[in-house]
Design a protein that fits this description.
4-stranded mixed beta sheet; alpha/beta; 6 helices; Hect, E3 ligase catalytic fold; 52% helix
């Protein structure tokens, strides 16, 4: 029985996916030669490809830049107060809204930053927050 289980597990996890994986690997290495990936440790490569999945939200707050706002403005204090009360999943949804991804890739957490900017609309009460994902700017009406 043990030999059967071992052979079955080997088939499911190795043999059955070998041919599709070789095709994927060949295409991947054509675009990204292996010599380029060897400079990364496995942990660095995982972060580079997958991104950070756990966050220090207070560090994120510390790294934010402000435009037409100051850190101590009431809107900003209210924003962070509400943000820090959100469950983890909602915070990741905000990150997706802001950047297009619920992960931070290609950065060290200490260097990831975004900007909160006042869009200076005529009637802020009739405007909703919106984001520029390319520029990492959150437009937050007063």
């Amino acid at each position: 029985r043990k030999e059967y289980v071992d052979l079955y597990v080997n088939y499911v996890f190795n043999k059955s996916v070998q041919k599709p994986f070789e095709g994927f690997m060949q295409g991947f290495l054509r675009g990204c030669p292996a010599r380029n990936w060897k400079m990364f440790s496995p942990e660095e490569l995982q972060v580079l490809l997958r991104g950070y999945t756990t966050f220090d939200w207070h560090l994120l707050e510390k790294n934010v830049r402000y435009s037409q706002y100051k850190k101590l403005d009431q809107n900003i204090r209210n924003f962070w107060s509400v943000f820090h009360k959100l469950p983890e999943e909602k915070k990741k949804m905000f990150l997706g809204f802001l950047s297009g991804s619920d992960r931070i890739t290609g950065y060290e957490m200490e260097h990831f930053s975004f900007c909160i900017k006042d869009p200076q609309v005529a009637n802020p009460d009739e405007s909703s927050p919106y984001a520029s994902t390319c520029s990492l700017i959150l437009f937050l009406p007063r």
